[in-house]
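Side project, low priority. Logging it here so it doesn't get lost.
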Amino acid sequence: MSAMNLKTKRSAPRFSWEQVEKRMRVVAREVLREEIQSVHVDSRGYIIFPNEEEYAAYLKTQPDKLPSEIKALFIDPQGLRIHYSDYEPTPKKARELRRRKIEKTVPHEIVRERLRALGVKV
């Protein structure tokens, strides 16, 4: 049994569950982008910015407060609510992060070999 469009007397197109799910995601993102074109306040009292640049500019106007103390956030391109962290690495941690960023990584073959040697099934 297939669905029928009564106005044209033609069969309605059939979509797979994946196609419907994908289309719903696209529509939800479009609605979010259309809704969030300007700065507004949500029901919890957070200032919502449509992009990161406006959010960062607002944070600069509050130099005596940490980001967690400011009830503000921005919407990223995927529609997620994002706010900056208060975490600032210590000089020691910053050096370690820079060092780790440039050091070579271990190839996955070596990792798998070591795991097998330990008896882990991979």
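Brief comment: The chain has four helices and six strands.
Revisit when time allows.
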